[in-house]
Design brief:
By secondary structure, the protein is an alpha+beta fold. The chain contains eight helices and 23 strands.
């Protein structure tokens, strides 16, 4: 038992163990000036006082002292056994009449072990006790930039007075999210580690109030005021068109107009659906409706201006010389419909005109890259195909649904 005592106390020899334990006793009951582990315990008063210091407000000292060593010692031993769970290592008679130092030290060491366990329990209780002043709430669901109809979230973290996260769940958390017209539903998950993950999807834009309480007390900074932005308008992409003029019919060679001319032609096409556009100070006139370019400086013997076909394209294929060639306007419509309907599920058949005859080709989607093949399901070669001139797309907003 003495060896057990030394290990528990951290003492080396009997002298240091004796001193360490005496110092501890006198810190607990300084009024009794205990100097040894023999005679100073015979009255029973030091024993009662030590037990009372560990379980206060039960023994009414010194009023309960009888000045009878046997009765007072019995009171202290019984109290220590019943209230503190300390085993009775010594008989009352031995403590009063024949106290033995090592036995008494062993007995008192159990009082210190009890005190140490209570200190650890207090620390544990403190560790597991929430401090409303330290608890925090954070996450993008409390910040600017959230949108109506889009799920967002925040985290509640329960912390103790030492500003450490409490490593367990099961706390009494209350959350209420109120929008412009009504309360919003939400989902809260207890992560069992002192944190709670809350998700919600605001139905409309405007000001929201988020209340977070622990044990019916508001966590610091609660309630939170969050402004929810209106959801962005739905959009679609359209391929960027470009206008070409037929440079050579044999072999077929389409030449793109420069960007400014193409944009001018496109603006007239969108605004009027046709019409005539004068280019280069009247040197050329482009009839959008007839899809013709007239060279006003070149006329035949009958005074008719030289004419060249023009076309408007939204889909293009790359030839061996590295140039982008327009598909016919009819083919562009077919490709765009296939793209929007099913993303080229399967092969989309298109016809390409050359100087001799129409050539049948197939366009497929290969992981977002479009390819043109000579035959269906051909896995070899293939020409690159682009949606929109040089890959450019136009983003358009769709009307909002209310």
């Amino acid at each position: 038992l003495i060896l057990h005592f030394k290990i528990k106390s951290g003492g080396g020899d009997d002298g240091s163990a004796n001193k360490d334990l005496l110092d501890w006793v006198n810190k607990r009951i300084p009024a009794y000036s205990v100097k040894n582990f023999t005679s100073d315990w015979q009255s029973g008063k030091s024993l009662c006082a030590l037990a009372d210091s560990l379980y206060p407000n039960c023994l009414h000292l010194p009023q309960e002292f009888t000045n009878d060593p046997t009765r007072d010692t019995t009171l202290g031993v019984k109290f220590a056994t019943e209230k503190l769970g300390i085993p009775q290592m010594m008989d009352v008679e031995d403590i009063v009449n024949h106290p033995e130092q090592h036995s008494m030290m062993t007995y008192i060491s159990y009082f210190r072990e009890y005190a140490n366990s209570m200190d650890h329990q207090k620390e544990r209780d403190l560790e597991m006790t929430p401090d409303i002043r330290k608890c925090i709430v954070y996450g993008i669901g409390l910040e600017p930039g959230n949108e109506a109809g889009k799920e967002t979230y925040f985290t509640i973290e329960v912390r103790n007075s030492a500003d450490r996260k409490i490593p367990c769940g099961g706390h009494n958390i209350f959350v209420r999210i109120t929008g412009h017209h009504s309360q919003e539903g939400f989902h809260a998950a207890d992560n069992a580690d002192g944190t709670y993950y809350v998700t919600y999807t605001p139905k409309e834009d405007g000001n929201y109030v988020i209340e977070v309480r622990l044990d019916d007390k508001p966590i610091q900074s609660s309630p939170f005021h969050v402004f929810i932005n209106d959801r962005p308008a739905p959009t679609v992409t359209e391929p960027q068109p470009h206008w070409f003029v037929l440079e050579s019919p044999k072999p077929i060679k389409w030449t793109p107009y420069d960007r400014d001319i193409s944009q001018e032609l496109e603006q007239n096409f969108i605004k009027y659906g046709g019409g005539v556009v004068s280019l280069q100070n009247g040197a050329f006139k482009v009839d959008i409706s007839a899809r013709e370019e007239c060279n006003m400086n070149k006329k035949n013997l009958f005074g008719v201006s030289e004419k060249r076909p023009i076309c408007r394209a939204t889909w293009f294929w790359k030839s061996d010389d590295g140039n982008w060639n327009p598909y016919s306007e009819q083919t562009c419509v077919i490709l765009e419909k296939a793209f929007k309907d099913n993303g080229f599920a399967g092969n989309t058949q298109v016809d390409i005109a050359d100087e001799k005859k129409k050539k049948t080709r197939y366009v497929v989607d290969e992981n977002g890259a479009y390819k043109q093949y000579r035959v269906s399901n051909d896995a070899k070669g293939g020409r690159t195909v682009q949606r929109g001139y040089l890959g450019s797309l136009i983003v358009k907003e769709l009307p909002r649904k209310h």
